[in-house]
Amino acid sequence: MAYAAFFIVAMIATGSALGLILRTNAIHGALFLVVNLGSIAALYLMLGAEFLAAAQVIVYAGAIMVLFVFAIMVLIPGKEETGPDPRRAARLLALPVGALLLLLLVFVIVGRLRGAPTAGGPSGSVPALGRLLFTSYLFPFELTSVLLLAAMVGVLLLARRRA
Amino acid sequence: MVPESFYVTLSAVLFTIGVVGVVIRRNPLVIFMSIELMLNAANLALVAFGQRYGNLDGQAVVFFVMAVAAAEVAVGLAIIVAIFRIRRRLSVDDLSIMRW
């Protein structure tokens, strides 16, 4: 049962990722990415990370994707990748190189994982993760707020229309 | 319980799709979305490893990755919009003025 659920979600995630990179229309790509982020949230739930699943839906599928869709609408989509690609041969080289990268990743990481003992998973419940974030990770947590503030000021500066 | 190696394999597949997307696409917005795909694949691997070794640190790191990704998307999209205002075109092949 758990296997069936995993394989269904994994197929949705892979298919939507392929849709993102193969569709020429950027807004279709954005919608595929939303599906992909949602399926990864489902995988987080299967791994017992409830807080991250909720944060994934709110931050990624909500906030970040709204930014993306907004930018696509501002930037007149659908007219960027028309016409022949002058570097088609060089780009097609990405497929064998990507296959090689995948083989390498799977052999190194998954091969290393096999046989190692599996500890009982931690509970990813909100109290446990919150306690960790506000004790061991308190300084990075506060730095994050500074980073977000800096990003906000930077974006305002970049988006300002120069006279 | 699905073994963690399945999750890590799926994360490797998603990461590779993201890398291929960055290389084969010409629209900077789609390239940006492929980068988000790679970030998510890495997050999935972090959560799977944290589950395997029984500590929550992986999930804490994923939390910070999400916060940094939010900042990164905002700044990156602002830069793309600023470039579009100046050049009126949106293809990464045109942006070679900084090439040595």
Structure summarized in a few sentences:
Chain A has 163 residues and is an all-alpha fold. Chain A is 76% helix and 0% strand. Chain B has a single domain, classed as Orthogonal Bundle (Helix Hairpins).
> How helix-rich are the residues of chain A, as a percent range?
over 70%
- Mean pLDDT reading of chain A: 85
* Helix vs. strand class of chain A: mainly alpha
Query: Under the CATH scheme, which class of the largest domain in chain A?
Result: Mainly Alpha
Sheet bearing the most strands of chain B, described?
A: none
Instruction: Say how many strands of chain A there are.
Output: 0
Please count the helical segments of chain A. 7
Query: Which CATH architecture of the largest domain in chain A would you pick?
Result: Up-down Bundle
As for the number of domains of chain A, it is 2
- Give the CA-CA distance, first to last residue of chain A: 62 Å
- The total count of helices of chain B amounts to 3
Largest sheet of chain A: none
Q: Give me the Rg of chain A, rounded.
A: 20 Å
CATH architectural arrangement of chain B: Orthogonal Bundle
Q: Which runs of chain B of at least 5 residues are low in confidence (pLDDT < 50)?
A: none
Describe the structure in your own words.
The complex is a heterodimer of chains A (163) and B (100). Chain A is mainly alpha-helical. Chain A folds into 2 domains: 1-79, Up-down Bundle (Four Helix Bundle (Hemerythrin (Met), subunit A)); 127-163. Chain A is built from 7 helices and no strands. The radius of gyration of chain A is 20 Å and the shape is globular. The N and C termini of chain A lie far apart (62 Å). The relative contact order of chain A is 0.07. The model of chain A has no long low-confidence stretch (mean pLDDT 85). Chain B has helices at residues 4-24, 28-53, 57-87. In chain B, helix 1 runs antiparallel to helix 2 (28-53) and helix 2 (28-53) runs antiparallel to helix 3 (57-87). Chain B is elongated. The model of chain B has no long low-confidence stretch (mean pLDDT 88). At the A-B interface, helix 1, helix 2, helix 3, helix 5 and helix 6 of A face helix 1, helix 2 and helix 3 of B.
